[in-house]
């Protein structure tokens, strides 16, 4: 189903300013994380992989370079248009809403990386998204969800920040709004018009995730706490990385 225009991610992720703001994300850290996950999970060389909410495809492309058959899906048409220039016989990209049925499976391993979950206004939609992912897994397949450690993120929330990227000055404000961590992004575009976007990510705790997993028929195998795959510690870990089995 097409995303309603009222959903913040349906417009912000297609904005060139989104990609400008996050241009300097650490590519080497992302590759090292993928390498660590592949060593930890050791999928077979013939495994079919899905990058769920793949953005412009940086992780999917790297996974395909390791020899796997990879599909990347994302809600943003602009991101998928960009990613498709790297497509080949064993690397495919599709526009897709993770709440909808995934017709390209079954997959042996599904990745949902870098807090690409919890965007939906209705909590039940998170379960629907997980059910769709579970249905696309082979029996015995695994799903990896990489999310912020919400407890630590809320405790250390930076309320105001400014950064300038390629001549655009972004003013970032963060606050809690009920169950969501909200980031307001203000800037003036190249036509001199003021712009305001919001990112809203549900402040999901471990216990909420575990309820979701149970409802989606997924078994929690382990929780890792950082990109080096150390065990999760609620007080100190920067991430909650869930490894789930169907």
UniProtKB/TrEMBL annotation:
Any single biological process term in GO: methylation
Molecular function, one GO term: methyltransferase activity
CDD domains: AdoMet_MTases (cd02440)
Source superkingdom: Bacteria
Keywords annotated in UniProt: Methyltransferase, Transferase
Residue ranges occupied by any Methyltransferase domain in the UniProt entry: 50-141
Signal peptide location: none
InterPro entries registered for this protein in UniProt: Methyltransf_25, SAM-dependent_MTases_sf
Name of the molecule in the record: Class I SAM-dependent methyltransferase
């Amino acid at each position: 189903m097409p995303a309603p225009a009222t959903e913040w991610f349906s417009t912000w992720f297609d904005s060139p300013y989104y990609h400008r703001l996050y241009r300097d994300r650490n590519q080497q850290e992302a590759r090292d994380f993928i390498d660590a996950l592949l060593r930890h999970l050791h999928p077979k060389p013939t495994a079919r992989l899905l990058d769920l909410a793949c953005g412009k495809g940086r992780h999917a492309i790297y996974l395909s370079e390791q020899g796997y058959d990879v599909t990347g899906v994302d809600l943003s048409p602009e991101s998928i248009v960009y990613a498709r220039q790297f497509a080949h016989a064993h690397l495919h990209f599709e526009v897709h809403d993770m709440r909808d049925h995934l017709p390209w499976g079954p997959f042996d391993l599904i990745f949902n990386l870098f807090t690409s979950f919890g965007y939906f206004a209705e909590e039940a939609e998170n379960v629907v998204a997980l059910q769709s992912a579970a249905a696309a897994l082979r029996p015995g397949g695994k799903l990896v969800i990489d999310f912020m450690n919400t407890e630590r993120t809320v405790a250390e929330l930076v309320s105001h920040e400014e950064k300038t990227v390629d001549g655009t000055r972004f003013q970032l404000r963060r606050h809690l709004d009920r169950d969501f961590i909200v980031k307001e992004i203000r800037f003036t575009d190249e036509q001199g018009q003021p712009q305001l976007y919001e990112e809203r990510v549900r402040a999901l705790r471990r216990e909420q995730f575990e309820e979701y997993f149970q409802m989606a028929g997924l078994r929690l195998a382990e929780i890792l706490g950082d990109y080096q795959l150390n065990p999760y510690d609620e007080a100190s870990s920067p991430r909650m990385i869930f490894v789930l089995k169907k």
